[in-house]
Structure formats: structure tokens, C-alpha cells
Specification:
Layout: H1 4-30, H2 36-49, E1 52-58, E2 61-67, E3 74-77
Antiparallel strand pairs: 1-2, 2-3
Helix pairs in contact: 1-2
């Protein structure tokens, strides 16, 4: 069984990776950037748009919470 901290880390990585791949494709398709600047632009876009997952110890045990630019407040995950 994985700990909640490990799950939160994996959630962060998977969501960031998926958004980065999509952002890199969109930047390379619709902008004039070349070389490493495509990846840099995609990284900055993904850094701003990706949700943040965090494991927190509460009175009910350890739980995973998510905060995101497009959601108001903090949401409990799982």
C-alpha cells in the first residue's frame, strides 16, 4: 500500500506530465518558438496551470488535498 505522500507526489507528476505534453504540442504548433524555447514556454504554462496535490495529517488521518487555479478553495481528493 502506498502512503498518501507518495500518492500526492505521483498525482503531481502525472498531471504535470500530461499538461506539459499538451502544452508543448500547442506551443510548437501555434507559436514561432524554436529549440529549447518550446520546452521552456510549455514548462512555464504548465507550472501555472497544473493543480497542486498535498498530503496533510488531519484529525481524521492523513488525507490528500488539491488546490488549483480554476477551483475556489481547497478540495479533498480520495
Amino acid at each position: 500500500m502506498m502512503s498518501k505522500k507518495t500518492k500526492a507526489l505521483l498525482y503531481n507528476f502525472v498531471v504535470f506530465a500530461l499538461l506539459f505534453i499538451g502544452a508543448r504540442y500547442l506551443v510548437s504548433t501555434y507559436f514561432w518558438y524554436q529549440g529549447i524555447w518550446i520546452s521552456v514556454a510549455a514548462f512555464v504554462i504548465t507550472l501555472l496551470l497544473s493543480p497542486k496535490f498535498q498530503a496533510v495529517k488531519t484529525a481524521h488521518g492523513e488525507q490528500i488535498f488539491m488546490s488549483w487555479l480554476f477551483l475556489k478553495g481547497v478540495k479533498k481528493v480520495g
